[in-house]
Every structure is written in structure tokens, then in C-alpha cells.
Amino acid sequence: MPAGPLMIIGGAEDKLRKRTILTEFVEASGGPDARIAVIATASSLGPEVVEVYDALFRKLGAAEVVSVRPQSREDAHDPELVAELEKATGVFMTGGNQLKLSAVVCGTPFGDAIVAAHQRGVVVAGTSAGASIQSSHMVAFGGPGSTPKQRMTQVAAGLGLLRSSVIDQHFDQRNRYGRLLMIVSQSPSLLGIGVDEDTAAVVEERDGHEVMRVVGRGAVTVLDPSRIVTNAYEAKRSSPLLSSGVVLHVLPAGSRFDLTDRVLLTEPARHDPEEAAELAEVTRDLQRMARDIAADDVGPAELRRRQARRHHRTEPPHQDGATA
Amino acid sequence: MPAGPLMIIGGAEDKLRKRTILTEFVEASGGPDARIAVIATASSLGPEVVEVYDALFRKLGAAEVVSVRPQSREDAHDPELVAELEKATGVFMTGGNQLKLSAVVCGTPFGDAIVAAHQRGVVVAGTSAGASIQSSHMVAFGGPGSTPKQRMTQVAAGLGLLRSSVIDQHFDQRNRYGRLLMIVSQSPSLLGIGVDEDTAAVVEERDGHEVMRVVGRGAVTVLDPSRIVTNAYEAKRSSPLLSSGVVLHVLPAGSRFDLTDRVLLTEPARHDPEEAAELAEVTRDLQRMARDIAADDVGPAELRRRQARRHHRTEPPHQDGATA
């Protein structure tokens, strides 16, 4: 059985209108058969947040929604909470403080059960803090700014559902290029992934590759530092970093990207239907002209005049060919 | 005579403490022989702004500072104002509204005189709006955000002192990746240059290449869209753009970058003096060991013991060689 999809949501996903992302999550969880576990450990408003998602997921057709909210590493060893994850067909991690979330769950039976759910094919989704924790390396906290500066952010260990990566969220809205660039400059084996609000990176395994599809209103920004030239190993505290040669991919909804090979998967080109209809007409005209030349041996100028008359009269071709 | 240096300043340059950038500008203008023309057309507080720079440049050693502030295209045809630029050894354009600046000066005798000053070797500097106008294509205005979105910004014609480029300023502070990415996605022949506050891109001509050096507290971000894959020619109004494969260079103070070939110019590696001293000592030890082996024919273990004793006693080498 292949691993389940990951849904990495950049925060502030639409809950009132089209609900594109949450609808896709409920469907991936099994729709009318869905049994969704909501993990609100990151949030300081746990019960209230669970209530919102409970109502939403049921409205979108889920059969059952349960709250599993360990508040300490001791809770995260509770077999009853772990058992809830074993029965889930979908896991959803809320926003809040990602360092609290990772500090409570990573490396516990509860954390292992999230990883196991993913591995047995269950969809694992998370928004904001719940997005960050999915990567192997997690942005713990850090300030805004476009320019990477030494020590402007900190890395902690995430769940590692997504290999060799670091995820950041609220990317468009909170000016987070700097902190993501700092991390990939210091760790160029990682791929930096910045997810905008109301946007999800949906990652699925395809032939051993992690393939990402973008859903929602914003974009997913990928920073590939494979060929970086940097001074991040020696720059002084708070000084801007040299980060030269990072390859940047901004990917709006509908884009597909191979995270393993780090390449855009291009779609077949879209055709404009009007342009196609026009081209078909020109092709018919040229074919008719060729037939006329063969039949009458008249000059091209006379043929163009005949064509103009045909278009003007808009008669069907087999008739006006005879009267020309 | 080669063209003069350009100083492209990202706004809010330090005026009270080290004044690194303004000091370099006054020196490039000729120091005690400097005759600086301040162009405050962009600013709504023209006379006050001129007063500030007048005081600063004189304090930094300039002989003379003159205000030249056309307020209309008619002013920009005034031969007296043009004559001031012809006598200047340095030109400084203030911040403010860059679209007002370009609308008043570009394509007038006054604008031509700025270009002519640059071409005869005079340093031309500008901060904020005065930075933007130096590129061939100018960001006219536009909102913040990290993700490029269709029509989030507008392009107007700049002075073109810097070829095939678009400059943005306050880059770190005002979350301007999005608008610069939108412009290079629509115009992939341009190089996008984002300059942080209190930071300058100093561009000089070297063997027909435009070579940039970074000065100041922040960084200069270069976006090279040469190999971009984008949908910017067909994306709908306000939707995020596909901008895949843009090469990103973040360049702090001291970096040098060839804007013509779009490559980082690397410096010789810096050596840590402590590490160098240690290496020299190891090298001396190894040479001594080789001499000892040749003289005594003893085993390496015994030699290492002798070396340990030497270090312990810290005697000069020519003596302890005899007593070992």
C-alpha cells in the first residue's frame, strides 16, 4: 500500500465559501465513510478550534470527527489516544504553536501513530503549525523580512512525513523569504517550501517520487539550494547572508512539481478554442484553393476573390464551388 | 572615458552614524572638489530634503551642493537647470514618488543631462525613488506580498542608466518579492534587482561589463529569469503567477556580481589566522619527524613520544633535536 497523501496548508484556509481545500481533505478521508481525528495540540484554544473543524468536516460529509489533543509527552503515551489514530481514515492538525506541537508529539507513540497512519495510506493534513511539523526539519519560530540574516530563525525536528525539506507557512502574507532562505543556506540538502494562506501543497507518492500538486488561492514557493554559493557557515550574528544560485519556483494552483527530482512537471499546452476554430477554417480555405487551382488552373488572385465572395454569401461549400 | 559609477540605494541610508554609503558617494564625487547636484523632484518635501542632504554632503567634505528641482516637464527644459548638471561632479536623486520623477525628467534635456553626466564619468546616485529611476524599466507602484500576482504592479520607463533591468527598493523591509517576480515573469529579458534599506548596489563598467558591488547594512537580491517557465502572458487578473526556474542571488556587503554575465564574482577564500598558525606548526613537526627518521631510523611511535616531550618542554627546535 502506498503512503497516504499529505496536505500541507499555509494557514487561513477558506472555511465559509468554496472550501476547496477542506472539501478535498474530507473526500480524501473517505467522504461519507470518513472518521477524522483532529489534533489541536498546537492551539491554545483547543476545544473551540476542534468545535469549528468538527462542524465543518461533518457539514462537508464526514461520518465521524474525534478530538485527540495530547497536552504533554505523557498524554502522547496514552494508549487510548493512540488507538484513536489507529482507527482514523484522516488526520488533521490545527494551527497554533508548532514548537509546542512537535515538543509534545515527536518521538512518542502518538507521533509514531501519525507516521504509521500516513504509511498505511491515510491522508494527513495540517494547517499553519500543522503544516510546518510535517517536514523533516521544522521552522521553530523567527521574524519577518525578505533578506536572510544569520540566526533570524531556528530549526527543530519535525515529524518527517516529507523527507529532506523545511516547510514555512503564511508565506505570501508574512514576508518569510528571509527565514526560509537562511535555513536552506545553512542546510543546502533541504528543499525550502513556502505555502501561502488558503493554499495547500498536496504531496503524493508516485513511483517512489514525492509529487506535489498545488490547490487553493495562493501559491507554493520552492527554494532549491542544490547549487548554492553561501557564507552561512561563517557569517556573523544578524548579518545578511550570501545565498547565490538558489533556484526559485513559484507554483500556483494546478501546478505539479516533482520534489524528488526538483523539476516542474509541465502540462500539455492549453489551446484557445477560438484560435483553434479560426485555424480550422483557414485550413479548409487552403484545401479548397488547392482543389480550385487543380480544377481550373486560374491564378491565385482570382481564387482569393472567389473565396471572398464565398465568405460573403456564407453558402455551404459544395454549392458555391459550382457557381463560382 | 568610461561611464561613471551608479549608486543604487534602497532607501533609508544611514545619515547619523557611519554614513558608509553617503561617504562613498561624496568621495566618488571628488571629496573636497565635489560639486554635487541634488535632485529632489520625487519628494513632496523638496526644500527640506535638499537642506538635509546639503548639510550632510558639506559635513562629509563636499565643496559645493546645489539644488536642481524641476517640478514640471517645462522646468526640465530650462537651460539654467541643465547647465547645473553640466557642471556637477556628482548627482544625487532623493526619494519620494518615482513616477513623478520619471514623468518630469525622462525624455527632457534635464533627463538627457543626467545620462550625459553618467556617460562623462560622473557618479550618479539615488535613493528609493532615485534608485528605481536608474533602470531601463521602472516599478511605477504596486502592493506588497511575496507571491507574484497578475497586475499587482505597473512598469514605466526609467532613465536607463542601468541596461535591461528593473530595480526595486526597501526590498527586505516592504515584502517586495512578489512585485519584482511579476515584472521579470512578464519580461524575462530583464534582471530584477531588489535593494534593501541602508544598502547600495554600486555599478561600474569593467571591460564592457556592468559589475555590481554591494555596500551597506543589508543585501541586494538579484532575480535572473533567463530560464523561467511562466504563465504570465495568460494568467487572469490578480491570480498568482507560475514563475518556475528563476535563479536567485542574495548578495550582502562585499559581494561582487557581474550583471552582464549574471554570475557571482567569487573572492579568494578567507583564511582563519589561528588555523593557519596551527597548520604551520604541524608542518614544522612533520618536517622534523622526517629528519629524525632519516637520522635515527627509529619507529614512528617513538618519534611521536619525542615530539610530545618537545612540546611539553617548549624548547627551541635546534636544541631539543640533539637531546631527544
Describe the structure.
Chains A, B: It is an enzyme of class 3 (hydrolase). Chains A, B: InterPro entries: Class_I_gatase-like (IPR029062), Peptidase_S51 (IPR005320), Peptidase_S51_cyanophycinase (IPR011811). Two copies of one chain form a homodimer. The first copy, chain A, has 324 residues and is α/β, with parallel strands linked by helices. Chain A has two domains: 260 residues, Rossmann fold (3-Layer(aba) Sandwich); 51 residues. Chain A is 34% helix and 27% strand. A nine-stranded mixed beta sheet of chain A has the order 3-2-4-5-1-10-11-15-16, sandwiched between helices. A seven-stranded mixed beta sheet of chain A has the order 7-6-8-9-12-14-13, sandwiched between helices. In chain A, α3 runs parallel beside α5 and α8 crosses α9. The first copy, chain A, starts with 5 loop residues before the first strand and ends with a helix. In chain A, 48% of the residues are buried. At the A-B interface, α7, β12 and β14 of A face α7, β12 and β14 of B.
Topology:
2 copies of one chain form a homodimer.
Chain A: E1 6-9, H1 20-28, E2 35-39, H2 46-59, E3 64-67, H3 79-87, E4 90-93, H4 98-105, H5 109-119, E5 123-127, H6 129-132, E6 135-142, E7 153-157, E8 162-168, H7 177-186, E9 191-195, E10 199-206, E11 209-216, E12 219-224, E13 229-230, E14 243-252, E15 256-258, E16 263-265, H8 273-296, H9 300-313, H10 317-323
Parallel strand pairs in A: 1-5, 2-3, 2-4, 4-5, 6-8, 8-9
Antiparallel strand pairs in A: 1-10, 6-7, 9-12, 10-11, 11-15, 12-14, 13-14, 15-16
Helix pairs in contact in A: 3-5, 8-9
